[in-house]
Amino acid sequence: MTASSPKAEPEFPSEQAVEAYLRAHPDFFERHLPLLTLLRLPHPVSGSVSLIERQVALLRDRHRQLEQHMGDLVERARDNERVGEHLHRLACTLMHAEDPDAVLALTQDALRDEMKAELVSIRLIGTEHDDLHRLREADLVHFEDLFARGRAQCGRLPRAALEFMFGDDASAVGSAILMPLVAEGGGRTGVLALGSRSAERFQPDMGTYFVTHLGELLAEAIRCHSDRGCAGK
Question: Is it the case that residue 228 has pLDDT exceeding 50?
């Protein structure tokens, strides 16, 4: 009698081959539903769960993430609508401001209300403004980079610029916004500054939609009052 030869071990595909097949046939388990009851996946909290349970949990997590994202989008849309309303009201008000002092006062009130700024400073180019609001040509050296950028700067800003804008209060400023004021046509009008004692209040990556458009309104209102050809002059 001859000894029977041992049975050869069945050859199974590699894990990589199985993964590749499942990726290429995502409907595989739809055609082999009984297999779902045999598969077990590790779970960090409650041990093992079935594939279906894990999929349901993942879908719930994804649903919660989508809900959060949608909530953030809705809140942002409401904020943008509110900002638009503030800008519209301010534009209408500035149109009827009697003089530059009224323009400055109305703008400062809007910034304190909308931006929750603790410190507001507006410096304007021209000899007709008082010392508190005047920006002399010699002082522009502090803001050449700002005007070159052409947009608001936020966060921790140059100490010399903060000292010029906020005076004795500069040492208490933890974060700030500097906004170049440029009238239509590119004429430099001045600089707008907002300051907060909190280092977290104004961040480099924050949105500047409101302060940018408010700065444009302010620059045009000042230009209008400085232009002898403006209506009302």
Answer: no
- Can you list the pairs that 30-39 forms with residues at least 24 positions away whose Cβ atoms lie under 8 Å? none
Per-residue confidence band for 232, with pLDDT thresholds at 50, 70 and 90: very low
- The lowest-confidence range among 28-32, 37-41, 53-57, 147-151 is 37-41
Token pair listed for 220: 């045009």
Q: Contact, 100 vs 227, CB < 8 A?
A: no
**What is the DSSP-derived secondary structure letter of residue 168?**
G
- For the 99-226 domain, the top CATH level (class) is alpha beta
Residue in the structure block whose two tokens are 């004429």: 187
What ranges make up the beta strands (E) of 36-186?
40-43, 47-50, 119-125, 134-135, 153-155, 175-182
Write the CA distances from 132 to 40, 104, 165, 216, 224, integer angstroms: 73, 11, 9, 21, 21
